[in-house]
Amino acid sequence: MSDRVATREEPVRPTLLPISLIDGAGVAVNGKRTAGFARPDDQLLLGLYRKMVVARRFDIQVSALTRQGRLATYPSALGQEACEISAVAALAEGDWLFPTYRDTVALVSRGVTPAEALTLFRGDWHLGFDPGHYRIAPQSTPLATQALHAVGLATAAKLKGDDTVALTFLGDGSTSEGDAHEAFNFAAVWQAPVVFLVQNNQYAISVPVAKQTHARTFADKAIGYGMPGYFVDGNDAAAMFAVISASVERARAGGGPTLIEGLTYRVEAHTNSDDPTRYRGKAEETTWRGLDPIARLETYLTKAGILTAGVAADITAEAEALASATRDSMSESPVLDPLELFDHVYVNDRPALLEQRAFLERELAATEAGGHR
Amino acid sequence: MSDRVATREEPVRPTLLPISLIDGAGVAVNGKRTAGFARPDDQLLLGLYRKMVVARRFDIQVSALTRQGRLATYPSALGQEACEISAVAALAEGDWLFPTYRDTVALVSRGVTPAEALTLFRGDWHLGFDPGHYRIAPQSTPLATQALHAVGLATAAKLKGDDTVALTFLGDGSTSEGDAHEAFNFAAVWQAPVVFLVQNNQYAISVPVAKQTHARTFADKAIGYGMPGYFVDGNDAAAMFAVISASVERARAGGGPTLIEGLTYRVEAHTNSDDPTRYRGKAEETTWRGLDPIARLETYLTKAGILTAGVAADITAEAEALASATRDSMSESPVLDPLELFDHVYVNDRPALLEQRAFLERELAATEAGGHR
Amino acid sequence: MTILENRRSAMPAAQEAAQTATQVSLAGALTAALRDSMAEDSRVVVFGEDVGPLGGVFRVTDGLAKEFGDTRIWDSPLAEAGIVGTAIGMAMYGMRPVVEMQFDAFSYPAFEQITSHLAKMHNRSKGAVTLPIVIRIPYAGGIGGVEHHSDSSEAYWTHTPGLTVVTPSNPADAYSMLREAIASDDPVIFLEPKSRYWSKDAVELPVVTPPMTRALVLREGTDVTLVAYGPTVKTALQAADLGAAEGLSIEVIDLRSLSPFDDETVGASVRKTSRAAIIHEASQFGGYGAEVAARVTERQFFHLAAPILRITGFDIPFPSPKLEEYHLPTAERVLAALDTWEW
Amino acid sequence: MTILENRRSAMPAAQEAAQTATQVSLAGALTAALRDSMAEDSRVVVFGEDVGPLGGVFRVTDGLAKEFGDTRIWDSPLAEAGIVGTAIGMAMYGMRPVVEMQFDAFSYPAFEQITSHLAKMHNRSKGAVTLPIVIRIPYAGGIGGVEHHSDSSEAYWTHTPGLTVVTPSNPADAYSMLREAIASDDPVIFLEPKSRYWSKDAVELPVVTPPMTRALVLREGTDVTLVAYGPTVKTALQAADLGAAEGLSIEVIDLRSLSPFDDETVGASVRKTSRAAIIHEASQFGGYGAEVAARVTERQFFHLAAPILRITGFDIPFPSPKLEEYHLPTAERVLAALDTWEW
Ligand SMILES: Cc1ncc(C[n+]2csc(CCOP(=O)(O)OP(=O)(O)O)c2C)c(N)n1
Ligand SMILES: Cc1ncc(C[n+]2csc(CCOP(=O)(O)OP(=O)(O)O)c2C)c(N)n1
Ligand SMILES: [Mg+2]
Ligand SMILES: [Mg+2]
């Protein structure tokens, strides 16, 4: 044990102030606050900006469609685009993403079509895309559970000798669950190629972070698992991308897991059925809108002369095209086959389940024929 | 959030080498390794020594009785007496102890009679004493679960305005469970008057600590919860007592929870049905026997002139008396009433359960009358 | 108001007169029960996820944080094992915690604390420790919830000795049973049918309905005993209406308590009708209906003219919102099932 | 060797000849099955608490660490949700994990991962994801275990759609069913009756017994169908002996698979005998026996001369070692129960 203490190098300790590369006013940061991370080049930042703008347009569109009753529910990620998009951008094609219900924009940014991505919230089925195809796990609702899946998948890849990395999103509230702890611990002990990205959007529904942890930062938790931890300005795409990519690449190179906290803010309600006026003030919301991740990048890129009117128009067009495609895909409901309810419960057929299927089939036929249902 | 970071003082950070007040050779330690803790006075140490000797004699006696088949199983705490006894000694009468299956000697040291304490392992009933009377929770088998009970009880006391403190034992392996994490977190957020004492005896049955955590110490975990953590030589009763009492008193004064790691060693097998030769070498066992918590205190107290032959004889007599009482109490089995199986399932009577009770009653009567069973 | 006919009021006459029957929702009745229990007994504390300022995602604790302050009701960290585990510790110190699991499936992280500790502590301590804890769990479907938000978990709890499991189907019972659950010295799993949260009755609060462990005959009938609980009581009453139109006299029983089971009330009904069916949302295999069918058959076999039927959810994971209507038992399905008997 | 009579061997003749039937314990058969599956398919990995160098607390993984090395079998950190959760991730990447829960009650921390993910992933992904995972759980009593070491948790798993739940009662089935479970693309809860771990049969390994989803008639009889599984199969056979001595012809069925349930085999037997009983260790209320009684009654009501009986543990937490004998069903108790029928 004293061996253990003596021989193992202390992992990077999280900073006390969030790592920052472009500040809230859109100005490049230098010095200590960068924690040694270099600002990604402007072209890369422009790419992030483009995706963030498109993501936000999508998010706003889906919220609108939800208000119109076209979706059962929608948890918006508005204001969290720097976390969402940087994570997706930092992954290689073969890497895996483990999202939560909050992270629909990340799915779409990774190529999942709106219709596929919104199947869950439209209420058509629990999942609308093939995880293997996109290397994206189903969006997880039971909090923190998916973090363990990410660790398992990453470990399997490592055992096979593949260089696949898994990144999982987690909310601030979710860090309180036992599963989050077990995931951090398994990942560290197994040195799994995983990146844990805690989007600290300051609320778990109505519960503020102060009721969730007594630690100074969520990144500080990394120390107790012997893994590197980074506390990052989660509204700064430059910083988020820099830290996430470095962590992904260290994981890929065999350096094990990383815990990243992105400090951000959930600008909208928890979901459309939530009422934030019950638990937070307008002033706070206004402050955070002022720290918007897109606005600051826009300022920075415009000043840098790289975000020209032409590029901006192009981005807007792309965003509007996605919004329009989203509207279209939600305007008509797919025909659902109730009998499919029975088709994927097991791989192997079960006579008793086939009986139940036959029962529903008869019932449906009777309904058409004007019978009971 | 930046407020949170800026205003909250950083809690004490665990040291990298275990806090030590009396070293393995029985020599008083001074300087850095004490981390500023003062050595308890010699009379107090003599008291700890006495209780440790008695505890060990009890433990050896129970292991022997187990080999003779008088108990169903027994998890020995041999070698861990500095942790066990210091914890009990540091608590005030109104404080609560939350032990695991490993901590029977702590129960007995707190006054539970051998017959009461061994009811569980003898197989007579799941618990043989009244928790409220001794302020000792039932020994917990589902790992880490009791830590949450300790947090709840301590919080209730705090809410009532009582100055009760709860101390819970945990094993090194148990720290991997989700419940351990939730307990640490709830305690820190609620600033509950709890002390978590991780007895790092280096094994979870056969699994060594290196497969359990990648952190340098378990005490390091405290940082992620924003609570003080201490890494202590768990075979040094002086250090254990000093750190535990300080933590108990801080908790009592409203200072919140503490996480303490006592670095010790499980000298015996996990239980009598375990076979340590399958997973660890003799050399290691020998090394740790050389770091024995009782031997070093004996050396120290003898040199200090306080452990005289007379005192030693007195202690031996006390230990032998307990061993003998233990043997006596295990020599005859109490008469168990099978019908009591039904009596404490619910406070409120249930007709259906009374029917089952009546069934067994009839069956038992029939057996006596030479019937079926 | 057949339901109310079965109730006796424990209110002093003066107090009763001062009140007027108003429309109360099931959720509102629960809020009132919590408020009255908290006001009456300072040992009652309430905590869980979002139960404080927000008032819970279903607003069942609405207003209580303001009224009682954060030493009586508060938001806990987000961890269900933590919530139940700390409640156990509090109860060991004399408190009477009422905790909320936000949705059915989110009680599963607390499964070990519930089965291995909450259910067993009284027994293992030979009665020395009592755990007067209520775990409130909104359950079942019918509200278009996405996955994990519509489970019916009653079979897990009812198979666990040491737990009392109850579920109200209407506002008056919601009030009275929750108050009784909080006053009980046994741990109670209190299942709240979320699809019924907003259904209203004219009820004078406080109201005292029959003991929560008693099943109630809500509708008398002579041909069939239809056993229901929680969300399916409404469906059962609809089925009784539908049956009446077809000349079938259906007796509807609201179990109210799932564990213990009221053998007496159900048995008496079945002896009268000689036929029985049970309706629930949970999937059928190993569901609560199996116990009802098995035990009633054991006890009333020679009174039964036909096997007891189970009208339940299918043996599939709970479906997505747009498909749940095909899964959930309906009054029509009940009638169709009764048609399968030889009469 | 009635059990073996029901088996056909899939071994090529030459290989068969090379082997001689030796005494194999149920635990030993499981070890052999793991070894053969691991040797045959490199995607099979084994992990859990103490399964490595120690070989598991019941020694079921004895020797495998040495043989296969720590990339195929290893000790995990001590956390059951972690074990099942990471197994799910591994399966999503193409592996076939076989994980061990050290004892029945210690699977409860994994309850959410099992019910909300393991059981549902295939369904929620419309078949896109399969999770070929086996969760081995030593279960039930009879070994004098202290509290939490003797639970029978089958009712929790069998009520959960998406899981396959099987339990062998003898060494040959232990081998063959575990191999089949590992080869299955559905997640399987593999319940190992710990009181039977050390019971031996003369078996030639490898052996292939009938498909694990089929129930087997172990003893033919004409008067009563006695349904058993796992640890109570032996008890059922004893009861059949005892019954025979009293002139009662008891047909004994070993279910082997609890989910799915083999309606065909059990139904055929009940139609023949017109009477049935089910025996299990788990407590009765909402236990697995309720499903057996309910579904067999539904399907065979007019063939039944008497209600189906349940001989089970009482509705109490599992007792301490010295009292478990009063709780566990015995052959005598089976006979006494059958005596309660009007014949
Ligand atoms: C195990 C579990 N418990 C409770 C819930 C209900 N619930 C859904 S979202 C939520 C808050 C989550 O907060 P956080 O982790 O911060 O994520 P955010 O929604 O802010 O992205 C809760 C309590 C759940 N989904 N799963
Ligand atoms: C939830 C749970 N999982 C598994 C077990 C089985 N088990 C009993 S003791 C033990 C090892 C515990 O190790 P540790 O926490 O280090 O305590 P120690 O025995 O060394 O005192 C295990 C795995 C259990 N009791 N509870
Ligand atoms: Mg959040
Ligand atoms: Mg240990």
Can you give keywords for this protein?
heterotetramer; A: 373 residues; alpha/beta; Rossmann fold; 2 domains; five-stranded parallel beta sheet; two-stranded antiparallel sheet; 13 helices; 8% strand; globular; disordered N terminus; C: 343 residues; seven-stranded mixed beta sheet; five-stranded mixed beta sheet; 14 helices; 36% helix; binds thiamine diphosphate; binds magnesium ion
Indicate the multimeric state: heterotetramer
Strand order in the largest sheet of chain C: 3-2-4-5-7-6-12
User: What is the CA-CA span between the terminal residues of chain A?
Assistant: 69 Å
Question: What count of helical segments of chain A does DSSP give?
Answer: 13
CATH topology of the largest domain in chain C: Rossmann fold
Given the helix and strand composition of chain C, which structural class is it? Answer: alpha/beta
Strand order of the largest sheet of chain A: 1-2-3-7-6
Ranges of chain C where pLDDT stays below 50 over 5 or more residues in a row are 1-18
CATH uppermost class of the largest domain in chain A: Alpha Beta
Largest interface: C-D, 47 and 47 residues
Number of strands of chain A: 7
Estimate what percentage of residues of chain A fall within beta strands: 5-15%
What integer is the average pLDDT of chain C? 94
Count of folded domains of chain C: 2
Shape of chain C: globular
- Percentage of helical residues of chain A? 40-55%
Any guess at the CATH architecture of the largest domain in chain C?
A: 3-Layer(aba) Sandwich
Structural class of chain A: alpha/beta
Count structural domains of chain A.
Answer: 2
* Mean pLDDT across every amino acid position of chain A: 95
Describe this structure as you would to a colleague.
The complex is a heterotetramer, with two copies of chain A (373 residues) and two copies of chain C (343 residues). Chain A is 45% helix and 8% strand. With 373 residues, chain A is an alpha/beta fold. Chain A has two domains: 320 residues, Rossmann fold (3-Layer(aba) Sandwich); 34 residues. In chain A, strands 1-2-3-7-6 form a five-stranded parallel beta sheet, with helices on both faces. With 343 residues, chain C is an alpha/beta fold. Chain C has two domains: 201 residues, Rossmann fold (3-Layer(aba) Sandwich); 123 residues, Rossmann fold (3-Layer(aba) Sandwich). In chain C, the strands form three sheets. Chain C has a seven-stranded mixed beta sheet with strand order 3-2-4-5-7-6-12, with helices on both faces. In chain C, strand 10, helix 10 and strand 11 form a beta-alpha-beta unit. Chains in contact: A-B, A-C, A-D, B-C, B-D, C-D. One magnesium ion binds next to strand 4 of chain A.
